[in-house]
Amino acid sequence: MNAQDVIALEQRYLLGVYGRAPFVLERGDGCTLYDTTGAAYLDCVAGIAVNALGYNDAGVSQAIGAALSSGMVHVSNLYHTEPHARLAELLCSTSFAERVHFCNSGAEATEGAFKFARRYGRAHGGDQKVEILAFSNAFHGRTMGALAATPRPTYQDPFRPLMPGVRFAEFNDLESAKAQMDERVCAILVEPIQGEGGIHLAEPTFLAGLRALADQYDALLIYDEVQCGVGRAGTLWAYQGFCTAASGCGCAQRCQFEPDLLTAAKPLAAGLPIGAILMRQRVAEVLHKGDHGSTFAGGPLVTSVAHHVVGRVAQPDFLTGVAAKGQLLRDLLAEINNPHLVEVRGRGLMVGLELDVAVAPVVSRGYDEGLLLVNAGPNVLRFVPPLVISEVEIHLVAERLTRALQAL
Question: Which of 55, 238, 311, 382 could pair with 233 as two cysteines, CB 3.0-4.6 Å apart?
C-alpha cells in the first residue's frame, strides 16, 4: 500500500478524533523516523515524550526478545511473576515510594490516584473528605475523572457532567491554593512541570508550600509526572530536581518536595502501554484486596521492558547528559533571531519555545525541513525528543527550526 492508500483506509474505518501528519511513517532508528517515501525526520516528539531511548534501540529489542522467550506475554494479576516485582523494587528504590501499583496509561494512573486518595480521605477524615485540589492550566488526562481535573472548556464541555469534587487554584500561586484548602480536601494534584499547558515549571516555594498544606490538612500530595518523569527533566523524577541536596533528593530527613503519590507512564516501557502509581506506605495501608485492579496491568512483557528502560535512564551519567543536552537545546533556541520568539523555558529535555503567533504553521513547515515538532497549546512549540539525542542532532534541530521560521 502506498501512503495515500493507507490514509484513505484509515479515514474509512478509524474514528476521526486525531489530526495526523500528511505522510505514513514506516520505520525508525535512533532519533530519526522515515516515511514510506524514504523521507527522514529528526524527531522532537518521541511519541509525545514516550520513546526515551529512541527507535530500534538494541537494549530494548533484547529486553523484548528475552521477555517473549518465556512465552508469557500476559497471565493476569491472579498470579505472581518476577518482572513486575523487580520493576516495583526499582521504582521504590529510586524514589520516595514504598509501594507501587501498575496500570496501563497515564490517565488510568490519575484515576487510580484519585481512588486511593479518596480511600485515604474517608479513612482519616470521614465521608466528607473526598475533594481534590487541582490547578489552572493543568492536563491530567481525558478519562472522566482525569478530565474533571483538567480545566479546559474545549476538553470538558462536550462531556459534562464531569466527576464532582474537584476544585481549582492558580498554578504557582500558594495563596490561591491556601484559599481553597479545608478539611474536605483529601488530595492536592499538581504537575511539577506542566506539559500540555505550555512547559511551565512549578516554583520551588510553591511545591514546598503545597507539601506543607497537605500535611496541615492531612491531605495527600500527588505529583503527575506522566510526562516530566523518568529522566525527562534531567533527574529520574522531576521532583528530585527541586531539591538542593548535593545528590538530588537525598535529604537525610523527609524532603520538603516529596509527594505521597506520584503517577508515571509515558516513557516507562519504550512505547509499550504501562502506567504506575508510586505511593507511601501510609497510603497503601488503607487499600485492601479487591479495592482496585486491572486485567492487563503489570504483565511480564511490559514490566520486563520497563525495568530495562528505568535501569538505563536512572544511571547518573545518563541523567547528567540529559541535563546538559537540555541546556544546549535551550541555549540554541534562545539564539534564534526571529521577532516572534517570546521565551524559552523548561528543564532537561522538556523545553518550550513560546511565540507570539500560532505554532501550527511552524509544525507543518517543519515536515518540509525534516523535523517533527509538536505544540503545547496554541503558541508554544514543545521539544521532547528521545533522551538519547546527540549534541550534533540538537544543532540540527536548531538549524532546521530556524529555516522553518524564516520560511513563514
Answer: 238
Integer Cα distance of 264 and 18 in angstroms: 24
Q: How far apart are CA 152 and CA 154, in angstroms?
A: 6
* d(C-alpha 377, C-alpha 358), whole Å: 9
Task: Report how far apart, in Å, the C-alpha atoms of 338 and of each of 50, 205, 354, 408 are.
Answer: 30, 34, 12, 11
What number of other Cβ atoms are within 10 A of residue 191's Cβ?
28
pLDDT at 251: 56
| Residue type at 136 in one-letter notation | S
Residue 305 DSSP symbol: H
pLDDT at 245: 46
Co-location of 47 and 124 in the same domain: no
Question: Is it the case that residue 250 has pLDDT exceeding 60?
Answer: no
Does residue 50 share a domain with residue 102?
Answer: no
Model-wide pTM > 0.90? yes
Place of cell 516501557: 269
Q: Which of 261, 286, 313 is the last residue of a domain?
A: 313
Question: Does 247 score more than 60 pLDDT?
Answer: no
**Domain limits for position 383:** 3-57+316-407
User: Among candidates 308, 221, 315, which has minimal Cα distance to 260?
Assistant: 221
What share of residues in the chain are helix, strand, coil (percent, to 5)?
40, 20, 45
Which domain CATH number covers 357? 3.90.1150.10
Name the burial class of residue 26, with classes exposed (0-12), middle (13-18) and buried (19+) by CB atoms within 10 angstroms of its CB.
Answer: middle
Q: What is the mean pLDDT of residues 377-386?
A: 98
- The whole-angstrom separation of Cα 63 and Cα 284 is 30
Q: Is 164 exposed, middle or buried (0-12, 13-18, 19+ CB in 10 A)?
A: exposed
How high is the pLDDT of residue 10?
A: 96
pLDDT surpassing 70 at residue 284: yes
Angstrom distance (rounded) from CA 200 to CA 163? 26
